[in-house]
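Bump. Still looking for Phosphopantetheine adenylyltransferase structure tokens.
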Amino acid sequence: MTIAVFPGSFDPVTRGHLDLIRRASRLVDHLIVAVMVNTNKRPLFTMAEKEALVRHEIADLKNVEVKAATGLTVDFMAQEHATVLIRGLRNEQDFGYERDIAWMNQSLNDSIETVCLLARPPYAYFSSSLIKEVAKMGADVSEYVPDAVAAELNRRLQDSAHE
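Sorry for the wait, here they are.
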């Protein structure tokens, strides 16, 4: 059985993330979406909230589960007996970044193979960070995130604006 992990901070989960999850789920027997902490970013949502939002959006995928993960991805993968790491590539900058991470992960655990999926054109030009930025300015982000995520994002940003 091939077990793969698709890690990310998913703050918030985007239509691009969901497209990659759906595509990756067809390539492996079991896919774990690992909701992780990006130490370089200040999250808008808690781990539990991000898990719930992702879980809601992929409920129809029977071979996919969502788990919170901390620490190194390779350690989480070993704990889950996963051998495939799924990553998405939007552009050339992503490629360089992901290549370096793949090399580091392989040096930490040589049984891990990284599989990169190219983002489809409608999803290749935005990130969660960019979506949060434009949402903070009042723009409609429903094209980039599922409806439930857009509603929660707008609610969260309105609450923080009133604090």
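Residues 90 and 119 are 5 Å apart (CA to CA).

Edit: fixed formatting.
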